[in-house]
């Protein structure tokens, strides 16, 4: 890759365009609605809208709901929809048919999965999690600790990238280890197979949170012999705001698994309306209540597109984009004490790059970037985060984003008072 990376020279547009011209995934970009004048680097928070989604959702609303009415539970396959779409998510995470169902929010699905996991290791009194995890995962675990503790909450042991390590906290007391595969703040990626092996060696169960992995990096749950996983579908999968989360349970655990929430859609015979709960065979027992069919319609349209994606090519492009971004940041932004927080080693990196900017207020810098049409986000206390969704982010976008960042820093536009104002959502 030859890049003009001389500081203060405009980035060589033809190099970026040449990389796009040689990109085997470039054709996917036109399958998305992307507003003019916007460089969208926040698909790790909310994926872009596929062009096919609006008409598909409209058809579900007008035909399946409007005309089909209650008949659509059978005629349009509504009842089975979470399992049918689950089977289409399975290949994206190295799962098999019958191992995935769609749930509610990731928080609820995590609760569902962790309780089932912990119940497979009765008598063990500790749960391992990560200090840097997305806080909702830790909040959910607090409740699991209390509910399953039988009066005394289960012990929580937290690992972190700067220690303690997993090896230091694992012993025969640990029931479950809950880890996020790709860290939402730093983009650091765990070695899923190696960590799973380590957890199993201690006799514990692993629950993977794949929110920043699915649709971003190849995941091989079965090859790793993993136990449970959850993830969201509105980030890299582009299912739309509020599209449901998924739960994956290895086939070998399903018959024994006792999820937390025992609702009627997870019952063996939901329409027998029996008085007692009897779990459905297989992954269906992880279902709870009536599925969010309109939200699932958005996901369904997006999964049509994912069926065409070669995940190895996706990973190659993701690494090309993040490497290009890092090399341009290194070459051009040194004057502002910019630190690349995301691992430089590609095997340890997801599909995002996070920066810490020593010489400026990161929050204000991101607001100024967004004002200029380059949309990333900010994660407290000081990380400026850029997500690279390989299906619709181009190499030219990367070059434009670094140009814009350099311009915001050079002009000191970020100092304008309006960029210091915080919204409800950052
Ligand atoms: C985005 C994200 C979530 C989101 O949880 P919801 O309940 O779907 O809002 C959870 N965990 C991680 C690691 C995430 O990145």
Describe the structure in your own words.
The chain is an alpha/beta fold and 426 residues long. It contains 14 helices and 15 strands. The chain has helices at residues 13-21, 53-67, 72-75, 81-89, 106-119, 135-148, 166-169, 192-201, 221-224, 251-254, 293-306, 311-332, 362-371, 395-411, and strands at 32-33, 39-40, 49-50, 100-102, 126-130, 155-159, 174-180, 205-209, 228-231, 246-249, 338-340, 352-357, 374-375, 377-379, 383-387. The strands form four sheets. Strands 4-10-9-8-7-5-6 form a seven-stranded mixed beta sheet, with helices on both faces. The protein is globular, with a radius of gyration of 22 Å. The two termini are 35 Å apart. Mean pLDDT is 96; it is low at 1-7. The chain binds pyridoxal-5'-phosphate. The site of pyridoxal-5'-phosphate has 13 residues, from helix 5 and helix 6.
